Amino acid sequence: MDARGTVRTQPLAGTRALVADPIESRRLREELLSDAKEIHEHAISVKLAVEEMAPVCRPGSVRVEEFMVVEERGTVQHLGSRVAGELADGLTCWDALAALFPAVTASGVPKRAAFDLIRRLEGHDRGLYAGAVLQIEPDGALDAALVLRTLFRRGDATWLQAGAGVVGASSPARELEETREKLASIADHVVRAREPGRAAHASASVDAGASAGEPGVSARAPRGAAAGR
């Protein structure tokens, strides 16, 4: 939310890889823009953003400023939209945050049922994953960035965290591939542990949902640690 009271949220849902070859990246971009499953997933997230903002914004002020454009983020490209509205009188940025958080793209719909399902199936707290980093200004402005593609360390264990949104038309193989594409954006920040007689490497290759096969590096969260979809 800015200092004038305009609330904005940017749903990002629908993903393809962003690769070194510009021709292939362009092909994947066109595929993303025409894929019925990705469009459906994105439309759900935009619809819910509008519905969540309506109770905390002035009547008639909620609008979709930008719809289904391609946004590049590291090693992937997403379908992105911008939804905005004017904060209702008597409310603050915290009311706006409470209305929109947790993000639908990290939970699911309907939210309450999704929370219960996540709690039952995952069996442990997500910790910082799917939380937010906040920047708060003296003039009342607030910016919240989701904590999604992340690297965690606890004791001797280091692991990467990423996920993919699953809908009825999802392909398990494609969702796994998407998770790997997202993990690639942070994998190069993992430094392999130095062992006697071995040089440390600058990066480690990871496979979503499986051990990276190197000391101190894992792509799977230890039980009791943050875990996402």
Automatic annotation (TrEMBL):
One GO-annotated biological process of the protein: L-tryptophan biosynthetic process
Cofactor: Mg(2+)
Keyword Transmembrane helix: no
Comp. bias intervals (Low complexity): 199-229
Chain ranges of the Chorismate-utilising enzyme C-terminal domain: 5-182
Coiled coil stretches, renumbered: none
Keywords associated with the record: Lyase, Magnesium, Metal-binding
Disordered as annotated region, ranges: 196-229
Matches recorded under SUPFAM superfamilies: ADC synthase (SSF56322)
InterPro entries (UniProt xref): ADC_synthase (IPR005801), Anth_synth_I-like (IPR019999), Chorismate_C (IPR015890)
GO molecular function: lyase activity; metal ion binding
Superkingdom as given in the UniProt entry: Bacteria
PANTHER family in the cross-refs: AMINOBENZOATE/ANTHRANILATE SYNTHASE, ISOCHORISMATE SYNTHASE MENF
Name by which UniProt lists this protein: Isochorismate synthase/isochorismate lyase
Organism, as annotated: Clavibacter michiganensis subsp. michiganensis
Gene: mbtI
